[in-house]
Design a protein that fits this description.
Serine Threonine Protein Phosphatase 5, Tetratricopeptide repeat; 9 helices
């Protein structure tokens, strides 16, 4: 990962010189650095990169552009990993609303955010809300990719975990 970080830093430095710190290509690299830092467990650095990317994308493209929403969703993932449930939910809800407007309720990016929200609700003990999100995600991913697609199977697994947590062992096993 050190090599990846060095490459992103090199790209970022070059893009900032060539295009400036608020160019959309520069902001894409900033977002990618956020992803890398999150994966490395550098949560403060990740948040700083995501916040910078989000602010720039909102200025360049607006708050409802899908690239802006991708960064919003990334912030949701970061907050969820940190246990900041209210912040994560706010980011997921914003991303979900925007994706539904931009791509519709059955687009895979929309469904991925539905899935993220379902996982968050399960972590919060909101089992009914989690199940509703998981079922929506399962139905949509099943239509989009088929019953054997990895996104469909991930959602099946999430629903199984939810049922096991509720003591519904027959449903979990199925």
């Amino acid at each position: 990962m050190a090599v990846a970080e060095a490459m992103y830093r090199r790209a970022l430095e070059g893009e900032e010189k060539a295009w400036g710190p608020e160019h959309t290509s520069t902001l894409g690299t900033v977002n990618n650095l956020g992803v890398l830092y999150k994966d490395q467990g550098k949560m403060a650095e990740a948040e700083a990169m995501y916040r910078r990317a989000l602010e720039g994308k909102e200025k360049a493209w607006g708050p409802e552009h899908t690239s802006t929403l991708d960064t919003v969703n990334n912030l949701g993932l970061l907050y969820a990993d940190q246990g900041k449930m209210a912040e994560a939910e706010a980011m997921y809800r914003r991303a979900l609303e925007g994706y539904e407007k931009a791509w519709g309720p059955e687009h895979t990016s929309t469904l991925n955010t539905v899935n993220n929200l379902g996982l968050l609700y399960a972590d919060q003990g909101k089992k009914g809300d989690a199940e509703a999100r998981d079922r929506r995600s399962l139905e949509g991913h099943g239509k989009a990719g088929g019953p054997e697609h990895t996104s469909t199977l991930d959602t099946v697994n999430n629903l199984g975990n939810l049922y096991a947590d509720q003591g519904k062992m027959a449903e979990a096993e199925a």
